[in-house]
Amino acid sequence: DMKVTQMPRYLIKRMGENVLLECGQDMSHETMYWYRQDPGLGLQLIYISYDVDSNSEGDIPKGYRVSRKKREHFSLILDSAKTNQTSVYFCASSSLGNYAEQFFGPGTRLTVL
Amino acid sequence: GEQVEQLPSILRVQEGSSASINCTYENSASNYFPWYKQEPGENPKLIIDIRSNMERKQTQGLIVLLDKKAKRFSLHITDTQPGDSAMYFCAASSNTNKVVFGTGTRLQVLP
Fold it and tell me: Which residues lie closer than 8 Å to A39 by C-beta, 6 or more apart?
């Protein structure tokens, strides 16, 4: 069963706290992504990972970092979260190749107070 | 330029009529154009895509058109049903696996 999982699904943090969002996939996909989704802005790419320890900045990487130590896991880290990082975060994965479908996880709703 | 512009942001149609969503892109190297549907509280899912070597693709009530000269592509949903109510995202990709999404269209199919 092809699946992308995200943990946690909901998270409330205070400004300045550290945040760890986890993503897993069981399809052995090389490429994984982190997006945030905000009303009126669509899906904005934060980071893309082409394989283990091969990560590239997306369009809005500021305030975020990522870690990919195993092909099936991709973590998003917010060091000292800010209120404007309140959003819904989606992880996705795809195989290599330009025409590859992206499979999205269920999303994590993060609120930073 | 990597922007993808998507219009309209909100679209209301009567059940049984057709709905059209239009997107334009800037990167002339873009060669893959997927469309994703996102139902409320759910994740985006691929519904149809088109490659740059095609001008038209149709599947199950969905039609995608691509005009490479104008850098424009569109989704047409024929005979809309209540189950078509959702958020729709167009996207464009070049040979980097990096996909740029439009800002989304909220489609409401009215009974």
Answer: none
Strands A10-13 and A108-112: parallel
CB contacts of A48 in chain B (<8 Å) are 97-98
CA distances from A104 to A94, B3, B12, B104 (A): 9, 21, 27, 16
Mean pLDDT value across chain A: 95
CB burial readout A50-62, b (16+ within 10 A) else e: beeeebeebeebe
Contacts of A69 by beta carbon, 8 Å cutoff, 6+ apart? A52, A53
Q: Closest by alpha carbon to A43, among B39, B3, B89?
A: B89
Chain B contact probe: residue of A10, A43, A104 with most B CBs at under 10 A:
A43
Say how many residues make up chain A: 113
Residue among B43, B95, B98 minimizing CB distance to A107: B43
Q: In angstroms, rounded to a whole number, what is the distance separating the alpha carbons of residues B50 and B56?
A: 8
Q: Which residues of B touch A44 (CB under 8 A)?
A: 101
In 3D space, the residue among B25, B57, B40, B56 whose CA is nearest the CA of residue B106 turns out to be B40
CA angle A13, A36, A39 (to 5 degrees): 95
Tens-place pLDDT, residues B14-44: 999 999 999 999 999 999 999 999 999 999 9
A21-43 pLDDT, tens per residue?
999 999 999 999 999 999 888 89
